[in-house]
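Recall that a protein's primary structure is simply its ordered list of amino acids. Everything else, from secondary elements to tertiary packing, is in principle encoded there. The following example makes that idea concrete.
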Amino acid sequence: MKGIYFLIMRLDETTNKRVGALGDIEFKDGRYIYIGSAQNSLERRVSRHFRSEKNKHWHIDYLLEDLEIEEVLAFEGESKMECYSAKTLEEEFHKIENFGSSDCDCNSHLFYTKKTLEELIDEINTIIGEEGTKSKDLDLQ
């Protein structure tokens, strides 16, 4: 499957985290939405996010040491959907400046909210215009 995915993560306690070249960032308790894409194997990319042992290559790799992934929504489609979705989420949520967007012209691919998991799933499905494939339905290895 090729397309985009949304990691919905929870942080229970505010923490400061060094994130590669972005430096130290304060992450408040609440939920975070990260948007990524994979134009080859989306399932393999998402599976990587669940592994604890990995080289830190992307900004999200640093953050996943402290956050719990609650849900993944995946959508088939072109990579341009990733930036469209990021720009749409920026209108609704607080963005973490420059996070995950070093290879595009977006302000961020990570967003913060206090909304519930169910509210976020509904909002993401509305933005994309279809229901996403949830992590339990992906072939994650």
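The chain has one domain: 3-137. The chain has a mean pLDDT of 91.
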